[in-house]
Amino acid sequence: MRVRAWIIAVCALAAIAVSVWQLERDRAGLEIEALDVGAIPATVYRAGDTPRPVVVIAHGFAGSRQLMEPFALTLAQAGYAAVSFDFAGHGRNPVPMSGDVTRIDGTTRLLMDEVGAVTDAALAQPWADGRVALLGHSMASDIIVRQALEDARVEAVVAISMFSEAVTADAPVRLLILTGEWEGLLAEEALRALRLVDPGADYGETVGPPPRRAVLAPSVEHVGVLYSGTSLREARAWLGEGFGQSADGAVTLRGGWILLLLGGLAVLAWPLSRLAPVAPRQAAAIPRGVFWQASLLPALITPLLLWPVEFRVLPVLVADYLGLHMLVYGGLSLFILWRAGILRRDGRALIWGGVLALYGIAVFGGALDRYVSSFMPHAGRIAVIAVLCLGAIPYMLSDAILSAGGAAPIWRRLIVKLAFLGSLGIAVALDFEGLMFLLIILPVIVLFFSVFGLMGGWVGRRIGTPYPVGLGLGLVLAWSLGVTFPMFAG
């Protein structure tokens, strides 16, 4: 067993080293520095100081600058000054989103103003030649389309995963629409926008005037479209035609290396867990009747109990409801387990729970923050994370106990996870308008279960107790949600 652990550790470290080397090599030859836009965090990527066209890059809902880095690096290597920034309420922008999200003159207008401010700041620099294009993903696609209609300086638009009612047959000027093949309705919307110019047009055709093109990136969805080589090449070629820039050379394909890095970090947790002392399992399996009660009753009761409750404490979209949901859900489950005599004291919970949380947040989370999306909070999010801990820790404790720290049969572990996701689904169905943003955050929760749950299971099976797993993963879950939800001041 010790030899196998060493072999796996060496292989994981090799994967981490190779992927980090490759990801850092993508930055070679570029100047990457902060751009002063007041409170808006912005980064410029460029190769040299000679004047060049500017491309302002905007992320989607719950995204950040890091998520758009494949485009920033590819365009910078092609001779542009690529300027990426964090919208209000996102990433490390300390200013919350505000305004009425249902009105064009509300939140949309405020976000357009941010795009305008970044554009102004970029064009004022000596490395800008006065020409500018806008590129945006998902939520930002509508923002940049509307901004292009008002800002005569914008000469081209690249809208990724676009949905915008502002697109007409005549505007915006020079529009490229990139959509993942698996994006369904958004793919249909891309074709509709293309056919406003030419009713007989199809994907991959350039029509106009005004110049317009819609492209499906093969075999990708809403996030994968940002890493697709097709997306990167099409964006570079479209801007190159408009600005007379080169469209040759390799594009920055980071998706595979990021997966290798995160996979290496996840796998490394197994040999590291071997450093913990082996301990016999402290308790027998939970009786089947108690298991079903503690798994299903909270899933049904919690959304019904909270349905009429108006709970607005945190300056973050639906995070206060999710925190309360986890608190009630975990509290009910722990109460059932306590009545059945299942709960035990465990003095190792703080030590090994802290180690697990440190690895998840500092090591794995540090890699996410560097290469994927913002994971390190600004000061304003610390209080949000602390409040979410009040719900996340009880919930994850109940999850860990019902899953026996990862040692329970797989059907039990699946039931526990699906019951919680189903409970959130019921809550959204009861109040779709108020809780619809929970649907957007569900992939984060599923990813958490898949990656951090795997690492927690290795620790739990090694030390023979679920309590450190529940505490550690509760802290990681609260942190993950606290840095992902957009901050919003209504």
TrEMBL record:
Pfam families in the record: Hydrolase_4
Highest taxon of the lineage: Bacteria
Coiled-coil annotated spans: none
Entry's transmembrane regions: 255-273, 285-307, 313-337, 349-368, 380-402, 414-430, 436-459, 471-489
Keywords on record: Membrane, Transmembrane, Transmembrane helix
Serine aminopeptidase S33 domain mapped to chain residues: 50-161
Signal peptide limits: none
Family matches, as Gene3D superfamilies: alpha/beta hydrolase (3.40.50.1820)
Protein's name according to its UniProt entry: Serine aminopeptidase S33 domain-containing protein
